[in-house]
Amino acid sequence: MADRKFPVLASLLTVAFSTAYAADVHVRVDPSARTASPGQENRTVFPTIQNALDHHPFATDGGRVFIEIAPGVYHERVIVTQNHSNITLIGLGKTPADTVITNSLNAKTAGGTFFTETVELNGAGFEADNLTFENTAGNTGQAVAVANRSDRSVFKHCRILGHQDTLFADYGRQYYVDTYIEGGVDYIFGNAAAVFDRDELHSNGPGFITAQSRTSPEQKTGYVIADSHVTADLGASTPPPANAAGAASTASAHGTIGLGRPWRPYARVVYIRTELPGEVAPAGWNNWGNSANESTAYFAEFGSSGPGASISARAPWSHQLTAEQAKQYAPKDFLAGSDRWDPISEAAKLP
Hints:
single chain, alpha/beta, Pectate Lyase C-like, 12-stranded parallel beta sheet, 7-stranded parallel beta sheet, 26 strands, 30% strand
């Protein structure tokens, strides 16, 4: 009877009750701890990140699992499975460089690009703060540092390091803020809806920054690089042998860097108020050897600055946006979805 009379009050009480009893879990990773085995799910200290993921207590009622990682270099591959949602990895060092998750696999040694990732994320709601994720295979072909398929994922104050195919931003809504991402060839690729906000994208060799892979114009995916800056050190890595994996794609940039090329026909990438270095090729964009992509891919800029920002020689099929057109790519709008997710507020909860 009360619910029929006071439906709003009943609804508010239900929300308040569920929020009040949401229980977060905090565990720690410290190499000095002993390894946990099945039946030890109540442990709170683990020697490796993967051991913590395999044996941590689960949060209840929508809470989060915070895995707090002691400073050090963790030579391991980390997989967050689909049934592990709301995982937060936090580095306890003073800077992201103090806590490093590292591995070194390339496509040739691993049997394909999608077996090379140092960290693979599948559970929704993943967050990372103050950490370095790296693949140290170098300029040897495809070598993924992070494969991210986590909807509503947030990276804050992180470093993601590699050369070719560094970050596989492939599924769901993803937000990268105050983060450093380094690579040489197609080093941000995949088909997520991802916003890179106040980030540094550092090209450590000639090649394209993005290779987005939207497959139809109806998909609400694409990459937005906003209020960021692109830097380059094209002498940082030596060119691979002519017969090495990735050699052709490196050569295609002819000693410059490009803003992006379409891995799939309807690729979408937008740069907003981002500083570009002189190493950016004047055309900016590339059709990946297929002129048909020029009528389907959507590559655009608004308010680019720096030595590489001149639009006089930009690919004629790319777009220069008005301020009004650029508004739709603000993080809270582009990543909102039907649940009205607010990535900025979510990131603000992290340290």
